[in-house]
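Thread amino acids onto this structure.
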């Protein structure tokens, strides 16, 4: 019952994160109190983990996106992921199935900075092999 309502509230937050509880309640046809209670519950459960701005990375000077597939040295995936999560240039770090173990997405100012960061990545002792692609066009990107 609440699952559908929670999804509707989440869609409202995604559409307009700064909307008031009253505005959301009005659009959803429910009371402000109900909206507030469901949001509070989702926050406590960890469904909603925070509120962040949507950024235009190009306007921040980070117009180059690189996607790197990584093969790790056996048994080193957890520590490698830990190290990768600390890298400010990487926006996404995923453990995956298939031929590679991890995929990371990085945002860079220019090809020189991207090249430096990828070479730094390649020097990590837990990385056996990588395959990097540069994104040529973006159809949809939401963080």
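Threaded sequence (143 positions):
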């Amino acid at each position: 019952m609440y699952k559908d309502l929670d999804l509707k509230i989440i869609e409202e937050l995604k559409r307009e994160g700064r909307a008031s509880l009253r505005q959301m309640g009005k659009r959803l046809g429910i009371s402000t109190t109900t909206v507030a209670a469901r949001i509070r519950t989702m926050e406590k459960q960890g469904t909603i983990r925070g509120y962040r701005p949507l950024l235009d990375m190009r306007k921040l000077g980070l117009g180059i996106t690189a996607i790197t597939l990584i093969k790790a040295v056996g048994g080193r995936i957890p520590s490698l992921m830990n190290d990768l999560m600390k890298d400010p240039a990487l926006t996404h770090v995923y453990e995956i199935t298939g031929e590679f173990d991890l995929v990371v997405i990085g945002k860079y100012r220019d090809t020189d900075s991207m090249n430096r960061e990828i070479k730094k990545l390649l020097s990590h002792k837990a990385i056996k092999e990588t395959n990097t692609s540069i994104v040529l066009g973006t159809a949809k990107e939401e963080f």
